[in-house]
Each structure stands twice: as C-alpha cells, then as structure tokens.
Specification:
Blueprint (H helix, E strand, L loop, with lengths): L1 E5 L20 E8 L8 H17 L10 H9 L3 E7 L1 H8 L4 E4 L4 E4 L3 E2 L5 H4 L23 E4 L7 H18 L2 H9 L5 E3 L3 H8 L5 E4 L10 E6 L5
Parallel strand pairs: 2-3, 7-8
Antiparallel strand pairs: 1-3, 1-9, 2-5, 2-6, 4-5, 7-10, 9-10
Length: 239
C-alpha cells in the first residue's frame, strides 16, 4: 500500500501543497510484511512492527554519515516521504530476505525494511509482490497502552487497510524521531524502540490533535481524503 503523508510544516516532506521537494527525484521506502496463509500476524502487532522497522532503518549506522545506505536515505528524505508496504510468504519472503535490508520481528509479525529505491526502480523480487489486499485482524482487542513508552494513536474515524495503516504508523514514528534531539533518539534506540499503536476514543483523539504533538496528515493518494489526520505521535519526551 503506497502512502505519502503530510503535515503543515514549511518545506516539509509531509506538507500537502506542492513544493520544491516535489521537483527532486522521488524515492520510496519499501516494507514487506510476512503473511503466511496459515498464520497471519495480528493487525496491531503488524502495525507496531512496521513502525519499529522504520525507526530501525533511520537509526542504523548504515543510514547515516558515510554509511552504505546514507545517500539513498538522504535522497529519500530530501523529497516526499513515501512508504510502500507489500506482503510476501514462502519463497517470496525468502527472496525478499536475500536482498539488502533489515528484518524486524514483533510478537509474531515479521517486517523487512529496505533502503529507499526510486519510484520506478524497484528490485524485481520486490516489484512483483502484491500491494493490495493486506487485511489483518486482532483476535482480541489490544490491552490499554501505558504512557511511559511512545504511543502512535490512530484516527478512530478512518477505515484503513492494514497496509495503509502500517505505512501511516511508520510516518508517525518518523515524525517523532525527527522531533527528538540526539539524546532522545539515542535513548529510544538503546531501549529497542519500544512503542504501541492504539486507537483512542473520539474525545481523546480530538484532544490529541490539538495537543501540539506531531500529527500525520495524508496526501490522499489512496483510500482516504487529502489532508486527513491519520496518526498522532505521542512520545513522552515531546509532551
């Protein structure tokens, strides 16, 4: 599921209006979730694992400085911030694992994140994977999230596919990462990027969107209307 998020910050890769970033070469961060027929992961676990995968890629030493992925990461972040979530199983998953990237494992979910690629330059073993129809359920409602760790709050009024929601959770985690100082990032990384993804009630959602915390607004390319608030990134250090 392809997503392009926006937030009303001048010259931000998430802003809704066209800008200079749209003139730059466009890249996408690929994520592949493992969904075996007999044992698909719970939806919330998949969302949380995807969000952590984005953070793992952002914080990896290969993504910064003179690292082997640093140029691709800079090019991606200099343009629009796009993420695409696709699914794989069996031999498809094994081929995806053979490509350069990082596999992040949740409670049962597995998500592999890859360095950014041009919009029209996908590796063939990723390009052939399905992008639609990634629907997952939670067998039981997730337990209430404590506020000692970051929480990515999802809009209770939006009906998003699992792939769309995974990308949006990744956007929220990335906004929180950008807002933190170096010490805050290091502390989050050293703790293993703990986080939860939850859906609040409508009253709490309204309060969250006006709290000053980072808010993801979708550009509206797929599934939902342009400018829709999808995620509030509630990191303790940003409250």
């Amino acid at each position: 599921m392809s997503n392009d998020a926006t937030t009303p910050v001048p010259d931000s890769p998430f802003r809704p209006e066209p800008g200079d970033r749209d003139l730059a070469p466009q890249f996408v961060l690929p994520l592949v979730v493992r969904i075996e027929r007999a044992a698909p992961p719970p939806r919330t676990d998949a969302l949380e694992t995807a969000a952590r995968a984005v953070l793992v890629m952002l914080g990896d030493e290969r993504s910064t400085g003179d690292g082997e992925w640093a140029r691709a990461m800079r090019d991606w972040q200099d343009a629009r911030i796009r993420k695409v979530v696709r699914r794989a199983r069996g031999a498809e998953w094994r081929r995806a694992e053979a490509l350069p990237g990082i596999t992040v494992i949740g409670k049962t979910a597995e998500v592999r994140v890859f360095p950014p690629v041009p919009l029209d330059g996908w590796p063939k073993d990723l390009a052939r994977l399905q992008v639609s129809g990634t629907d997952l359920d939670d067998p039981e409602p997730p337990v209430d999230a404590g506020l000692s760790a970051p929480v990515l709050w999802m809009n209770p009024d939006l009906d998003m596919s699992a792939g769309k929601a995974m990308a949006q959770a990744g956007h929220g985690a990335q906004l929180a990462w950008w807002e933190l100082d170096d010490a805050g990032r290091a502390a989050w990384r050293d703790a293993g990027y703990p986080l939860a993804v939850r859906t609040p009630d409508r009253d709490r959602w309204r309060a969250l969107t006006t709290s000053g915390l980072p808010v993801v607004r979708d550009a509206g390319y797929t599934e939902i209307a342009p400018g829709s608030c999808t995620v509030v990134a509630d990191h303790p250090a940003l409250r």
